[in-house]
Design brief:
This protein is mostly helical. The protein is 62% helix and 3% strand. It is built from six helices and two strands, in the order ααββαααα. A two-stranded antiparallel sheet has the order 1-2. α1 (3-42) packs parallel to α6 (138-145).
Length: 178
């Protein structure tokens, strides 16, 4: 192999890496626009955190509110998701425990994503989640499409439960129950 072939191979590899980085950036931007739009519409303070890694977990937690995971209610997702994300990042490549934590975080993220989809798309949530798992680039696309969406009938921000009084939590705005 001569120098020209080596340089050509390195150039092609650099080009492929650059293209993959641009594609990854595009999907990150789509996800951030989606979360930012939903957060603004929900009146979440510091919606700009949707653009910052780990901050986007805070916004997702605020949007979802609480989940039920293996018959356990998990509240304060806006705190739990960023902390677990940081721990997972720190331990991901360290030992068997890191692999278990990474897997547990992936499951938690899928459950949270399901609840977010359910809050905005109801019965379509299962299909959206399956597509997001099988084709991971679908999650940012789905989030982007939800940027201007309203929670479906009766859901109020910060909860997965329907509001009995027809009002949005923390505001005087009327939200009719459906």
């Amino acid at each position: 192999m001569n120098e020209l072939e080596l340089l050509l191979g390195l150039g092609i590899a650099a080009g492929v890496i650059f293209i993959l980085l641009v594609i990854g950036l595009i999907f990150y931007i789509l996800k951030s626009i989606g979360l930012f739009g939903m957060a603004k519409k929900a009146g979440i303070q510091n919606a700009w955190l949707a653009w910052i890694p780990v901050g986007d977990q805070y916004i997702t937690g605020k949007l979802v509110g609480k989940i039920n995971l293996f018959n356990n209610e998990i509240n304060n997702l806006e705190i739990i998701l960023p902390i677990v994300n940081i721990i997972t990042f720190a331990l991901a490549r360290k030992s068997f425990l890191g692999g278990l934590i990474t897997t547990a975080f992936a499951v938690l993220n899928f459950v949270v994503l399901y609840y977010l989809y359910k809050k905005y798309k109801g019965d379509k949530a299962v299909g959206m989640l399956i597509l997001s798992i099988i084709i991971p680039v679908m999650a940012p696309i789905f989030l982007f499409t939800l940027r201007n969406a309203e929670p479906i009938g009766g859901f109020y921000y910060g909860s997965n439960e329907r509001s009995n009084d027809g009002f949005t939590e923390g505001s005087d705005d009327y939200q009719p129950n459906m």
